[in-house]
Amino acid sequence: MFRWLSRKKGQPAEPQRIALPIEDDLSDLAARMLAFVAELEHVHESAQAALPYAVEEADKSRHVDRKARFVSYRDVLHSSILQLCGSIERLRSAHELCAGLEQALRSGHFDSTTGQTEIIAIRRVIQSLEREESIDEIWLRGVRSIKKEFDGVLRERDRENAKQKRKRLGFKTEWETAKAAKERMPKGTGHRDSWNPYE
């Protein structure tokens, strides 16, 4: 917070972070989830391996203090194993959702042109229905109502597409500005400046 206040006068600002596409963010998140699952599974295996020793001594030990200790070990291990199983299952489920969303984005399922061919075909049919000789007034009003609602959906779709396009253009401009600023930063000369104002 307020990091610019701590910057010395004349010191260049930190280069702006260039955001990655959401697909790359999801890919990175999915990879970290898998790594976390692997870590938890190793811990789970260790707990499972230790549990029989605790259970055996908890059942067989005749010394009161020793028995109490091993009962405690057994209970802790058993509870931890159950909790780890739940955590692993939730992470695996989240990973599947994350990987599925990444794949859908990379496949273009959320592209603004998705369904465009079908939308055009449906619009032509609805327009043709409106031009057809009506069976009765109720039929005509029904067709016109459908067309009005459909046109409203298309207008909203066009507005949203235009909004997303403006966002993408803004991001591109920001990225290009950050890239240009980075290129303008002075390059290292490979040797130290002999002048030191603090000496």
If you had to describe this structure to a student in words, what would you say it looks like?
It is a single chain. By secondary structure, this protein is mostly helical. It folds into 2 domains: 22-106; 116-183, no CATH class. Helices cover 73% and strands 0% of the residues. The chain is built from 4 helices and no strands. Helix 3 runs antiparallel to helix 4 (137-184). The longest helix has 48 residues, at 137-184. The chain is elongated, with a radius of gyration of 32 Å. The model is unreliable at 1-9, 12-19 and 193-199 (pLDDT under 50).
Number of domains: 2
Rg value: 32 Å
Return residue spans where pLDDT drops below 50 for at least 5 consecutive residues: 1-9, 12-19, 193-199
The structure class reads: mainly alpha
Q: Per DSSP, what share of the residues sits in E-state strands of 2 or more residues? A: under 5%
**Mean model confidence by pLDDT:** 79
Largest sheet: none
List how many beta strands DSSP finds.
0
Q: Helical segment tally?
A: 4
Percent helix range: over 70%
Order of helices and strands: HHHH
Please report the distance between the alpha carbons of the first and last residues. 32 Å
